[in-house]
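Sequence and structure are no longer studied apart. To make this concrete, we show below a single chain and its fold as tokens.
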Amino acid sequence: MHRFHPLALLVLLALPGCQEQLDVLRPDGSTPTPPPPGAETTYYEDLRPILVEQCVTCHVRGGIAPFDLETYDAAVEVGERMREVTRDRIMPPFLADNSGSCQTFSNYRGLSQEEIDVFARWVDDGMLEGDPATPEPAPVEFPTLPHVDVTLEMPMAYAVDQGLDDDYRCFVVDPGTTEDTFVTGYDVHPGNAQRVHHLIVYNPVDEAAVTQARDLDAADGVVGDGYPCFGGPRVTAPPLVLWAPGTGPTRFPRGTGLQLAAGRAQIIQVHYNNLVPDAPGEDRSTVDLMTSSSASPAYLGLLADTDLLLPPRRGSITQSRTVSLSYLPTSVRVWGQFPHMHTLGRSLRVELESGECLIDVPRWDFNWQLVYWYDQPITLSPSDRATLSCTFDTTERDDTTTWGDGTLDEMCLSFFYVSL
């Protein structure tokens, strides 16, 4: 069993039925205004501003996406596909429902219905070019951290295993800290932007977990070259940093922070995507941490259903568990969540007995491991009961699937970022 700070036991559960994909309109709930009669939607005037703001952080030459969207010709080539993936809210990737029926999130990066309509009208109007002299929209500029106090760096350049479609690798890194401190923000710098699909830093709970990780590293070959770790770090270590392309620098909410023990080694997990053609073969990513000695302590609570028993050849299996939170010493604030399943996962939902939905992921995608920060924190009290539900598809499996870290195992959990 994983061990956490007492407050991390905040929510050990697993929850009920998952609902179908919800339609999401504008964030303010208003209805999109159709264009004037006779107006035609063009690339330069209408589509390019949306692509620059929402898409080209990944779909850029030399980026993680398999093609760029920086020119009219490039957009025309995938116009029909763009209409499909924006209509179905597959892209930009934001898996949680942000409609307001189950919370809203400060880091939401999906499209409004009006923007989705622009993609559809552009294709329907014939993917017109428009006026190339139209002023170019300003590129997205991510804010920077106010200060960087610790930098985590992979021990050596890693030669990505290009024999795998997806290479998951964990690296044990020295934080170089001499005193206990709190991490209050982070910024990830992928060393190979074309292959680094997501990066998670795991924070071992004690030195025994660090030793276990170092042993895994040594057993796999050259020390410092890491070890395979699909699904998690394979040791007891909750996440500290959660990053995917387009995330930008992240600051934890309202002066809160996660504790980093003096000298405690960290584990960087990198998911390398090998489906990008002609990408460099090595990576040495770094992670900048902003720290403080005076932050309000925060903890990672865990909701998990570890009793998974998923029979094979089933198109849809939902497992749920309801847990009383009566063991909480007092009310706590939940600032955000990091849900997690493996490749059989299809949806995940967390709901209180009162009916309040805490998070709903109607269409899970293992390739996009994201953290979701609430617009406003949610208060949980000892009188609450919570349910976590996960739905899976085992159609392609011949054997029963159970909980575990392995490629063919499954998980149903969500980490909660919590403070008093």
Notes: The helical segments are 43-54, 72-77, 79-87, 113-124, 207-219. The longest strand covers residues 181-189. The chain has five helices and 22 strands. The longest helix spans residues 207-219.
